[in-house]
Input
Amino acid sequence: MNNNRFLTGEKKYIFHVHGMHCASCVMVIEEILKEIEGVKNVRANLHTRTVEIMGEWEKTSDEVAEFLTSFVKKNGYTLSLEKEKKEKKWNEFLYAFPIAITFIIGFIFLQKIGLVNLITGGEVNYGTAFLIGLVASVSSCLAVVGGLALSLSANYAKEGNGWKPQVLFHGGRLIGFFVLGGLVGILGGSFHMEQTGSTILGALVALVMLVLGINLLDVFHGIKRFQFTMPKAIGKRIMKERTVVNGITPFVIGAVTFFLPCGFTQSMQLYALSTGDFVRGACIMLVFALGTLPVLSALSFSSVNIKDKSWNGIFFKTAGIVVIALALFNIINILVVVGIINPVFNF
Output
C-alpha cells in the first residue's frame, strides 16, 4: 500500500475482529466502517480475522477500537487489539448431538410414513430446502440479509414509515427467489445436461453443504477457506442501496438478495441449475426463501438476534450436525444412483 496518497496525519490501525466467521462478515464490516467520518480506507481479512483501517483520529488505538466497535456491535462484531480466543466448547456437543439425532430420526420417520419427501435419489427436495433455509437464516444469511433488513427499517423509521417497507422487502425476496430460481433452472436446461452432469452438480451441492455444516460446528476454523462465495462487488453494490429511501427500494433490494454471498443460497442455486426446469428451479428457491422467512422477519420487526443468546453455541452445533447429515445422505444416495454402492437407507 502506498501511504503517500494519504493525507498528513493519517495512521494505519490493525484490529482483530471478534465475531467474524464468513465472507459476508467481511463485506458487512467493510461497508459499515467505510461510512464513518475519519475513515479513509478499510480492508478486512477473513483468514486472519483482522481489519486494516486508515484514518485520522486524535485517540489511542484502544479508544479507536472502542469507537469503531460502537458502529459494528449491533451486527455481532467487536474490534480489539487482542486476538480473539476461540473456545471450541466441545462440551456443547453433549447437548447438540442428542438434539440433532432426534431431529434427524424424526425427519426420517416422517419420510418413511410418507409425510415428507426429504431425500430421494440424491436430490434436494422441498423438505430439505426449507430446513436449509431455516439454518441459513440464523447463520450466513443473518450476517447480510438481517443487516439489510435492520438498515432498511432504521432508514424508513426516520421518514415515519412503519411496517410496509418490511413487507415489501420480504415480499420482494420471495418473489425474486421464485423468478430468479426459475431462470437459473432454465439456464441449466439450456445446457442439456445428461445424468452425469446432474450427478456432478448434485455432488457439488452436497460438498458445499458439508463445508457449511462443518463451519457451523465452529471447531475446525481452517475449513472456512474452502467456502464458495459470490464476487464481493455484487454484495457491496446491494449494501450501498440499503440507505436509499423510496417506495420501491425495499422490494428491489429484497429480490436481489438472491445474489448476496450466502453459501447456503448458492448451494440451492446449484441444485436449481441442475433441475433444468423453470418450475422446479423456481419452487426450490421459493421454499428455501420461505425457510429463511420466520427468523429474518422476526429480526426485521423486533431485532431478534440469536447471536446474543447464551445457548447459541449449542444451537449452531446442532444445526451443523443436521446440515452435515443432510450432505452425507445426499452423497450416499448419489453413490447409490450411479451404482457404486447398494441402497443404504431405502428412502
User: Anything to note?
Assistant: Residues 1-8 have pLDDT under 50 and may be disordered. Residues 90-337 form one domain.
